[in-house]
Specification:
This protein is α+β, with helices and mostly antiparallel strands. It has a single domain, classed as Metal Binding Protein, Guanine Nucleotide Exchange Factor, Chain A, CATH 2.170.150.20. The strands form 2 sheets. The chain has a 6-stranded antiparallel β-sheet with strand order 3-4-8-7-6-5. Strands 2-1-9 form a 3-stranded antiparallel β-sheet, with no helix packed on it. Strand 1 and strand 2 form a beta hairpin. The longest helix is centred in the N-terminal third of the chain and has 21 residues.
């Protein structure tokens, strides 16, 4: 009986996550990006840690990123290509250990892709300009958008706003 209940809960959770993620626009697997470099060029341009996150869909350890508790005013850009992704006004402290934003800069700067890695079903967020892995999108944000763009600091650079 317990095994059946446990199986039911797991299947229900998977179906709920799948339904949630299917409602979001998911990019085609064969997307061509404007900013393209060879694998060797990416390795020269990025630090080994940035390469791991941006090009190999890695994740930095929670509470270690330089932008997790960052409070300056400005624009967060893709560390791979410099495309503007988020403003400081979109950032909030989600206490999850990674920089979190409740929306993205308009204009299709971020693409979404279904991610089934590690036995989970999530929505991966990708730079639309270079295809760099940024993090994941969740619908558990505390603001009026209800969204939480959970982003690796290693995938970002920051342009301070001039006062």
């Amino acid at each position: 009986m317990i095994k059946n209940v446990y199986s039911f809960l797991i299947i229900s959770g998977i179906l709920a996550c799948n339904a949630q993620n299917n409602s979001k626009p998911i990019m085609e697997e064969k997307t061509t990006f404007k900013y393209q470099l060879s694998d060797e060029e990416w390795k020269q341009k990025l630090s080994p840690e940035q390469y791991y996150v941006l090009r190999q869909q890695g994740t930095e350890r929670p509470h270690t990123g330089k932008f997790n508790l960052h409070k300056e005013k400005g624009v967060y850009v893709c560390a791979g290509c410099g495309a503007e992704l988020f403003t400081s006004d979109m950032k909030f402290d989600s206490h999850c250990g990674w920089p979190s934003f409740d929306k993205e800069i308009e204009g299709g700067k971020i693409l979404k892709r279904l991610d089934k890695s590690y036995g989970m079903i999530r929505t991966e967020i990708i730079c639309a300009n270079c295809g760099g892995h940024l993090g994941h999108l969740f619908d558990d944000g505390p603001t009026e958008t209800g969204m939480r763009y959970c982003v690796n600091s290693l995938s970002l650079d920051f342009k301070k706003k001039d006062n």
